[in-house]
Amino acid sequence: MRILLLVTAFNGLSQRAWCALREAGHEVGVLFATSETGMVEDVARANPDLIICPFLKDRVPARVWRRWRTVIIHPGPVGDRGPSSLDWAISESARTWGVTALQAVEEMDAGPIWATRTFAVPAVPPRKSSMYNGPVADAAMECVFEVVAKAGDPAFTPVPADRAPTEVPGARLRPLMRQSDRAFDWGDPTEQIVRKIRAADGAPGVRAELGGLPVFAYDASPGLGHAGRPGQLLSRRQGAVLVGTGDGSVWLGHLRAAELGDGRAGIKLPATTLLGARLRGVPHSPLPPGAEPEHPAAYRQIRYRRTGAVGWLAFDFYNGAMAPGHCRRLLAGLRHAAGQDTEVLVLRGGADAFSNGVHLNVIEASPDPASAAWANIRAINEVCREIITCTRQVVIAAYAGSAGAGGVMLGLGADIVAARDGIVLNPYYDIGLYGSELHTFTLPRRVGPVRAQQLVDDKLPLSCSGARSIGLVDEVGPGGLDAYGEWLQALAERESEGRTARNRRQQKARRLAAERVPLEVYEARELAEMSRDMYADRSGFAAARHAFVRKVKPAETPSRLLFKRKKAARSRATVLRPAVPVSA
User: Fold this and answer.
1) How many whole angstroms separate alpha carbon 402 and alpha carbon 12?
2) What's the chain's average pLDDT?
3) Where in the chain is the domain with CATH 3.90.226.10?
4) Fold topology of 302-480+503-554+567-576
5) Residue among 133, 118, 111 at smallest CA distance from 51
6) What is the assigned CATH class of domain 2-163?
7) Which residues contact 482 (CB under 8 A, 6 or more apart)?
8) Is pLDDT of 561 > 60?
9) What is the pLDDT of residues 104-119, one digit of tens each?
């Protein structure tokens, strides 16, 4: 079937649907929703059998849905309508929620029903972004395939919305959630504040005031104890600030200035970066005495534990972005873990994102973005080198969340790359940067030099199964987080068996010793290219970074996402291929 994905942006669910439908044998194209006229003309040019809208904030023009079957994937159960479905669900502590596939009609979210799924919502308030990329995306994919199957059945007729059973009590038309609906007072209970902020994560955040600065708050976690007055900045740790509440405290990891005032205004940044001098006198906070490292209120972005012969190094950076400070902390964690007497080291990223590479927001906010970018890439390269050269343990890079750009490359030097089913990998650079993370060393060794070049040039996402089929990923575990965790533990324990682990370590040590070109040479070549991108802006890094950070809507759909056309391959292989044959 010829299926067109009409989207506001090509990320998350849109990419997952694109990968899965293509792997199922369908011809799939993507079209960004731009102007009404543009959408009508572009859809007519594509002339699809079916239009699916997995992530669309704009109204579908009547000239489109009247001519082509158009199905909207709405992140709410049957009966729910409106643009803030997940916001209301999290804010009002819904215990069950759903996804509905409905046909586009004149009235928003009111069309006949093609498919629907429901799921349980955790009692602990999830971030909106986590809920969307987790249970919503899983349910949406089931709906997408049901829609495709029904579209191939000439006898199928969708059920009118007013006749479809409502499985979630209270599902109804709701208005756009505004800041007045999200507002809280610092004297409110911690749980209430956390829930309201998480219902607005990652956009639009909740307006508040900290240190005399109007901000939008994001990335909230409950703190430990009650140590100050409501609204007081109590301490800081790893880029986050601890703020007093009515019955305790809350950690805020990221803030965005609410009023334009300087070059950083309006950019979401680590809280300590945005507050800057306003934190004078606010102490740095070590882990509280007696606090359990695994306790969620003990704010830590990096946690290490060991179970028998397996060491577990977990890191979770907001949106997968890694500024130099994140890189330094992860590097310290890696070195600590590598110094232990374990057989296996599991490096596990967050469920929302394993990594997305350098922190573009922090770079954009810097008074000297080029130098900030340079420092960032040098710091993340140190982490990559530590993974590649670790021979004391078998290293498993566990991609529990999706990854992009340098975040994909980050773990490729591990002995085993183990991904969670359903995540998406974008193993390329598409923001005016050549890329580093030692990918010219690791990527060809995993997929071969020709495939490595193709991945970098084509700039297309990969599903886990697609990544495994070419060697980018070694193992794929279950899609559910709990099931993936159990599967990963079994994998790590299997690899920790004495002879198995020893053989892997020895093989890696021999491969590294046989390399005729030092690892530093690969990095030097990459950094030479990156210096031209960062300091000379040869490929438009500054403009692309600004558009990404400011969420500038693209003017047109990239040609690589349109329905497939034959095209000549570009070559950058003289740089990507190793200078000598890859060692066996």
Assistant:
1) 8
2) 92
3) 302-480+503-554+567-576
4) 2-enoyl-CoA Hydratase; Chain A, domain 1 (3.90.226)
5) 111
6) alpha beta
7) none
8) yes
9) 999 888 899 999 999 9
* Cβ atoms of 167 and 16 closer than 8 Å: no
pLDDT of residue 567: 44
Amino acid at 479: G
Residue 517: count of CB within 10 angstroms of its CB: 13
CB atoms < 10 A from the CB of 325, how many?
18
Sign of the dihedral defined by the CA atoms of residues 245, 247, 248, 254, in that order? negative
Task: Tell me how long the chain is.
Answer: 584
Residues facing 395 on adjacent strands: 345
C-alpha 68/C-alpha 91 separation (Å) is 36
3-class secondary structure, 548? helix
Using DSSP's 3-state secondary structure scheme, residue 424 falls into strand
Q: What is the pLDDT of residue 285?
A: 80
What stretches of 152-276 show up as alpha helix (H) in DSSP? 179-182, 190-198, 271-275
In the predicted model, is pLDDT for residue 398 greater than 50? yes
Every domain range in the chain assigned CATH 3.40.50.170: 2-163
Contacts of 203 (CB under 8 A, 6+ apart): none
C-alpha distances out from residue 287 to 226, 295, 339, 543, Å: 15, 11, 22, 40
**Rama region for 401: left / alpha / beta (φ>0; ψ in -120 to 50; rest):** beta
How many Å is the Cα radius of gyration of the chain?
24
Q: Which CATH architecture has domain 186-279?
A: Roll (3.10)
- Position 584 scores a pLDDT of 29
Please give the average per-residue pLDDT across 327-341, as a whole number: 97
The answer to whether 424 and 19 have CB atoms below 8 angstroms apart is yes
Q: Where in the chain is the domain with CATH 3.10.25.10?
A: 186-279
All residues at 6 or more sequence positions from 67 whose CB lies less than 8 Å from its CB, including other chains: none
Q: Is the pLDDT of residue 283 over 90?
A: yes
